[in-house]
Amino acid sequence: MKKTLNIALIGTGFIGKQHLEAIRRIPYTNIVAIADCNEEGLKRTAEAFGIEKTYTDYREMLEKEDIDVVHNCTPSAMHYEINKEVIKSGHHIYSEKPLTLTSEESGELVALAKEYGVATGANFNYRNNAMVREMRERIKNGEAGKPLVVHGAYLQDWLMFDTDYDWRMDPKLGGNSRALSDIGSHCFDTIQFVLGEKITEVNANAIIIYPERKKTEGGGTFSASAGKVTDTYKVLNEDVAFVMAKFESGLQGFFNISQVCGGKKNGLEINVSGSKESLEWHQEQSDRLHIGKRETGNEELFMGEAYLTGEVKRFATLPNGHPVGWADAFRNGILSFYESIWDESYKNNGFKWYADFESAHHIMKIIEACLESSKVKGWVKVG
């Protein structure tokens, strides 16, 4: 029988609640405590999830509670400090992305985790969708042939008006990058996971659509309402980015990243054009995979255990025709991380189904290379 993992969570906003719901769907887990400096929000979340122990100081929670794993679901600017404290306390850590605000900070966390021997995970959840894993397996076993070119997009519309404002626009809270860091990072991680190789060089153009934005009453992250303008803010990080990329094998690709594309809600798309067939996945129709053929009819593969490859089969948890989607991929990533703790495979240096801190550190280096490339108007090596 597996050891029940005692879980603590820091940060009880939107993403923190998604973590709590996902953890509750995994056997042999026990949420022992949650922490948040917002006492009112902390209380509401504790009542909603039936969690008895709460802390407004996460350090006190780390000291007092018997914890195996900590989930860090705080805003970006807090990731580095909290992840560092958790590692030093000897607990395994599963952090939201971006891992930190700079690659210098993320590199320090990688080294620190190795020193303390703890498991690390970063929530790049899209790689944990069953159809994304199916893409990886079909490329790995040669069914799609040799990858010839790749392209992807992550398009959203929640910041398309100048009255849309979010804390991520403040570099002190969200970092020097926004669209690339917030959603482009998912593109980069997903395609690297599918291909089994890293991005090594980029040529990017990062664009600020609105140099100034208006903050309004009632406005906020993903808010549909905007009232009276209360303040204006100078925008210092990008709304849009176009990125050409080179990979370890010499393969090349292109990515379109935008948070100002009307009608696109969470439009992550990945395409790998292979020498035998192309594979295309759309996050908003996440339970199917488009297989493009030249000499025969195209195929659309629906998620079902009978149709999937090897290790991927176990993630088809519902019968064919019962869509498995975003929340399921979210759970899959956390489950894969927990499994590495149960079987101690996190100690190995080889492939991991989930993104660890080393993977997240490389994403930070890609983002910084994109920003540098946009400044110098040319190709920049990653790292």
What attributes characterize this protein structure?
383 residues; alpha/beta; Rossmann fold; Dihydrodipicolinate Reductase, domain 2; nine-stranded mixed beta sheet; 17 strands; 25% strand
Structure description:
- The chain has helices at residues 14-24, 39-49, 58-64, 76-88, 103-116, 130-140, 171-174, 179-195, 326-342, 357-376, and strands at residues 5-10, 29-35, 53-55, 69-72, 92-95, 120-122, 147-155, 199-207, 212-216, 229-234, 240-247, 252-258, 267-274, 278-282, 288-292, 299-302, 380-381.
- The protein has 383 residues and is an alpha/beta fold.
- It has two domains: 5-125, NAD(P)-binding Rossmann-like Domain (Rossmann fold, 3-Layer(aba) Sandwich), CATH 3.40.50.720; 127-322 and 357-381, Dihydrodipicolinate Reductase, domain 2.
- The strands form three sheets. It has a nine-stranded mixed beta sheet. The protein has a six-stranded parallel beta sheet with strand order 3-2-1-4-5-6, with helices on both faces.
- Helix 5 (103-116) runs antiparallel to helix 10 (357-376), helix 6 packs across helix 8 (179-195) and helix 8 (179-195) packs across helix 10.
- The protein starts with a strand and ends with a strand.
